[in-house]
Amino acid sequence: MTAWWRDSVVYQVYPRSFADSTGDGVGDLPGITAHLPYLRDLGVDALWLSPTYPSPMADAGYDVANYRDVAALFGTLTDMDDLLARAHELGLKVLLDLVPNHTSDEHAWFQAALAAGPDSPERARYLFRTGRGEHGELPPNNWHSAFGGPAWTRVPDGDGHPGQWYLHLFDARQPDLNWENPQVREEFHAVLRFWLDRGVDGFRVDVAHGLVKADGLPDDDPALVALPSTERHECGVPAPMWDQDGVHEIYRGWRTVVDEYDSPERVLCAEAWVWPLERFLRYLRPDELHQAFAFEFLRTPWQAGPLRAEVLRLLAGTAAVGTAPTWVLSNHDVVRHATRLGYPAGTVLPHGIRAQDEQPDAALGLRRARAATTLMLALPGSAYLYQGEELGLAEHTTMPDEVRADPTFHRTGGQVAGRDGCRVPMPWRADAPAYGFSPTGRSWLPQPPTYRELAADRQAGVAGSTLELYRTLLAGRRRHALGTGTLTELPGYGPDVVAFRVAGSAPVAVLVNLGAEPVELPAGELLAGSGELVEGRLGQDCAAWVLVEG
Ligand code: ISL
User: Fold this and answer.
1) What percentage of the chain carries pLDDT values higher than 90?
2) Residues with CB under 6 A from ligand 1
3) Residue 536: how many CB atoms within 10 A of its CB?
4) How does strand 525-529 pair with strand 542-547?
5) Distance CA 510, CA 498 (A)
6) 70 falls in which pLDDT band (50, 70, 90)?
7) What percent of the chain has pLDDT over 70?
8) Cα–Cα distances in angstroms (integers) from residue 317 to residues 5, 9, 26, 229, 391, in the given order
9) Element (H, E) at 111
């Protein structure tokens, strides 16, 4: 029997913004539990919760102060147990977000490290170093934080004078752990067990490519060190802080722990921004992580050739290591695909969009986003959805700077808008306060007025709505076992058409038309379409599934 995760559709819940049960304007665990039937009816197999641990929230919870509890803002451990129990009752699996690269500066270990001083065992759990320069006044190396600014912060010594520096690949409030230290390794095995024993079905692994750093923390190439992190990965020159060979031994250890829990099987999914493909596939070897997000698919421009090539490339690559791809189009770190695709193909988007930036063509973006999802959900492998994409939510592209919370915005002195625009609270009911997100109408980030028409209650049961399209696709995918199917190219279509035959329990033709010329559909039953047909033919930026003859 195929393992459940091989073809599962996982829905990412961003807890702050899903559903607020208390009225404080921030989503919480009881809010999520109350909406689990919605997820069951949508037709997903599992949910992944972005972090809900106690945290000072310097990076929206990706700065964990205690790995074995729940933040009061989100509820209690009992609320988590209730969520797990209810989800399982409804046949939904639950993944948590594990953040192993760094802790919060409020974690007891970091506080102890500050108090203990240089050369102590407490500091050896992190990456403290003496600075360069005559008085140690310069950072130990030239690395940059992924959020902007230097990757090092200096702390005072016991006598109040400037002392050592510590490494943080992200915010200064997210000190990197030292994964060469056996205590760190043991601690994370124990954390995995803590949650697996409570019934959690797996973990998404944050920054999975970052845990091990090159020996001696050498300078990065000065010409490359300041590149935005994705470009730094792509440039083909190995970086001393990412994708080091030593990281794989850690995952082999985790796999052993996770494999002790086999009924049901538990899963580990890597967030690993790693190029080229051969390096990426190493994370997916049979004794390492089960899944790793296909970010290269997410980044593929809306053009038939590149899309076709990326699908085939990733299917072949993952097959070579005995697994299948993990497709994704949106998450809490990237501009939502309904907005991304509303720009001309190949536009290099800034990290977040502001009112003064060029605005997307919203209708075009939504049309293409629906087509992109129609393609994705037909593909063999697993797929991750990000909350709100099933409503066709766009990025909030005109949010006032005063309300921004992403440390990227603040660390770059406002140069980079950051990720708040994709993290806006969900609209559930068009006519309720905060569109049904919160009983008091409060909302930690403002919702744009366009969310009203997109509210879930406006779309449920409405033929042709984005919500109903997702439901149709998810039901069809399940019925025809597309996730475990085999994919071949369908011959006979022009260069602007992506055309595949996916043979699950029955053969389904999947077509995406990226050209201006309408395209004839193959004979068979039309199972789903992302847009209206033009005289029976598939229009531009539309996709369809047709159940074809054996
Ligand atoms: O490529 C990158 C660095 O190599 C980045 O894209 C990085 O992997 C990404 O920003 C990591 O994101 C994750 O960890 C961050 C957190 O802010 C994000 O929300 C989370 O998804 C720090 O924990």
Assistant:
1) 93
2) 59, 62, 99, 146, 170, 206-207, 229-230, 233, 242, 271, 273, 332-333
3) 9
4) antiparallel
5) 8
6) very high
7) 100
8) 18, 20, 41, 24, 32
9) helix 108-116
